[in-house]
Amino acid sequence: MSREAELRADLVRLGALLYQRGLAHGSAGNLSVRLDDGSLLVTPTNSCLGMLRPDQISRVSPAGKLLDGDPPSKEAFFHLAVYEERPKAGAVVHLHSTYSVALSCLCHDCAEDVLPPLTAYYAMRVGRLPLIDYYRPGDRALAEAVRAQARNHRAMLLANHGPIVSAASLEQAIHAYEELEETAKIFFILGDRPAAPLDARRVAELETAFPS
Asked: Disulfide check for 138: which of 43, 69, 74, 175 has CB 3.0–4.6 Å away?
């Protein structure tokens, strides 16, 4: 099996897993992986992550031109922006999971980091989570806003929309996304109770011990 065929199969298998776990619903959300030649495999527009077929997966050029498969997600353009800014990224996950989207709908005093580092694994896998202003779905202006944050962040949160998470592989991006969603859930469970997020010293220790 070729590398591309393996990655197509991974998108189908892991997309179904995300759907079964309730992290994806309907036709919302999209996944992508980067091929060795710089082109991308992206889940198609209006497709359900729980019901994909390998031949449906879109392959697009680094410029966004459709090369093979069904038409790509209308949000493929911000996947391309992430890859352009993060040369080591091999995958991007964007879903509309419940707790992360709820977090994106709140008013935040500081948009530079909207979810505290409540656990070590969140700090290691996600890091700081900036909030990007709202853009309507499909608005190409979102690409530049994503690009600006992707330079320094593995993950970001689109206002009233949901997270974008990148990593070296699809599995790693999904693990980081799941950590983000679970931390958002913990954030809402804690509510107004006094909490003790990791302080800057402890976060720095993790960054030294587990560099990204």
From this structure: 74
Residues designated as active site: 75, 121
Instruction: Please give the pLDDT value at position 137.
Output: 86
CA distance linking residue 122 with residue 115, whole number of Å: 10
Domain residues for the domain of 94 are: 3-209
| C-alpha gyration radius of the chain | 17
Whose tokens are 């962040």? That residue is 153
pLDDT in tens, 140-181: 999 999 999 999 999 999 999 999 999 999 999 999 999 999
pLDDT given at position 212? 73
Q: How many domains does the chain have?
A: 1
CA distance 29 to 171: 16
Residue with tokens 């964007």: 94
Q: What is the CATH number of the domain that holds 84?
A: 3.40.225.10
Percentage helix, strand, coil, to 5, in the chain?
40, 15, 45
* Contact between 150 and 86 (Cβ < 8 Å): yes
